[in-house]
Design a protein that fits this description.
The chain is an alpha/beta fold and 306 residues long. It has a domain at 7-164 and 193-227 and 274-288: Rossmann fold. 40% of the residues lie in helices and 16% in strands. Strand 1, helix 1 (16-24) and strand 2 (30-34) form a beta-alpha-beta unit.
Length: 306
C-alpha cells in the first residue's frame, strides 16, 4: 500500500524564513499555511487560545512554527507580549501537537546565551539570556521540551534574506543614502541566509519522514547557522562590497565602532557563534560559509534587478 504524503502545517506567512519555507516544504507533502489573517483557519500566537482548535481540525503530521515576536528592542517594554507569543503560545502548540501525534519544528535564537564564551556554543551549553527577547525564546524552548512531544528546536542567528526586515536590507538602503556607515565591530556571530534555513529544514524532515521512532531518536535541539563567523562590521563590509559592484552607492566609508558607541535598549551577546557539529552528525547537513551564501543572495538580487 502506498504511504500517503504528510500534511504539513506551517505557522507564519510573511516572515523571511516562513516565505522560504513555503517553497521548500511544498515539495514534501500537503502544505497548509496559517497565520493571523488566514481563513477559515486563523491562528494568532498572541491569542494562544486560538491554537488548539486549528491544530485539531487540520490533524497535521508535521507542524513547523516560523512565527515569533522578533522586535528585540521593543521586547524590553513588551516582555509580557513577547512571552505570550514566544513561550505561552508555543507551549499550547506543543501540547496540541502531542494530542494529534505530530512532530513539531520550532526556531529559536543565539540570544538564549549570554555571549561571554570565546568558543562556539554547543547545544548543551548553559543558557543565560540577557534580554527580554532571549528570555521569551528560552521559555518557548522549555515549553516544548516539557510537553513530551517529538520536536526539533532549531537555533539560528543573524538571519537575513532578500525579503523582510533584516540587517542586509538595512545596510543596502543606508549605503545608498549615507557617505559613512558606523557599524559595531565587537559582536561576533553567524550571519545565516533564510533560504538555507528553509532548505535544511526540508532536508531534515525528508530524512525523518512519518516514522515516529525516527522522530523520537532525533528529537532535540540543534544549531542551524552558516559556517564561519564574523562581526556586524565584517557583515556590513561584505554587503557593501557586493552592492558596489552592481550599482552606484553613496557610501564611501565603513567605520568600526564599539557596542557602547551604539547603545540599544536590549543587550546583545558579544559572542554568539553556534557550533553545528550535532546537526552534521545527526543529519549529514553541512551549512555553507556565510560569505559564500551572501554572494549568492546578491547574485539573485542583481538578476532580479536586470
Amino acid at each position: 500500500m502506498l504511504k500517503t504524503t504528510p500534511r504539513i502545517l506551517l505557522i507564519g506567512q510573511q516572515g523571511q524564513v516562513a516565505w522560504e519555507l513555503q517553497r521548500t516544504l511544498a515539495t514534501l507533502g500537503e502544505l497548509i499555511v496559517v497565520g493571523r489573517d488566514t481563513h477559515p483557519h486563523a491562528l494568532d500566537l498572541s491569542r494562544p487560545e486560538s491554537i488548539a482548535s486549528v491544530v485539531e481540525a487540520l490533524q497535521p503530521q508535521w507542524i513547523v512554527n516560523a512565527a515569533a515576536y522578533t522586535a528585540v528592542d521593543k521586547a524590553e517594554q513588551e516582555e509580557a507580549l513577547a512571552t505570550t507569543i514566544n513561550a505561552l503560545a508555543v507551549g499550547e502548540l506543543a501540547a496540541a501537537a502531542r494530542r494529534v501525534g505530530a512532530l513539531i519544528v520550532h526556531y529559536s535564537t543565539d540570544y538564549v546565551f549570554d555571549g561571554m564564551s570565546t568558543q562556539p556554543y554547543t547545544e548543551d551549553a548553559p543558557t543565560r539570556p540577557q534580554s527580554a527577547y532571549g528570555r521569551s525564546k528560552l521559555a518557548g524552548e522549555e515549553a516544548i521540551r516539557n510537553a513530551g512531544v517529538p520536536h526539533l528546536i532549531l537555533r539560528t542567528s543573524w538571519v537575513y534574506g532578500a525579503r523582510g526586515n533584516n540587517f542586509m536590507r538595512t545596510i543596502r538602503r543606508l549605503a545608498r543614502e549615507r557617505e559613512e556607515l558606523r557599524i559595531v565591530a565587537d559582536q561576533y556571530g553567524c550571519p545565516t541566509w533564510s533560504r538555507h534555513i528553509a532548505e535544511a529544514t526540508a532536508q531534515i524532515l525528508a530524512q525523518l519522514g512519518q516514522n515516529p521512532s525516527a522522530w523520537n531518536d532525533k528529537s532535540g535541539t540543534y544549531h542551524l547557522v552558516s559556517s564561519g563567523q564574523g562581526s556586524w562590521y565584517d557583515f556590513a563590509a561584505r554587503i557593501v562590497d557586493h552592492q558596489r559592484q552592481h550599482e552606484a552607492i553613496k557610501a564611501e566609508r565603513i567605520l568600526p565602532i564599539r557596542t557602547e558607541d551604539y547603545p540599544l535598549p536590549a543587550p546583545r551577546p558579544g559572542y554568539s557563534v553556534l557550533c553545528t557539529d550535532k546537526l552534521r552528525a545527526s543529519f549529514g547537513i553541512h551549512m555553507p560559509h556565510w560569505e559564500s551564501a551572501l554572494s549568492q543572495v546578491h547574485n539573485d538580487l542583481n538578476m532580479e534587478r536586470n
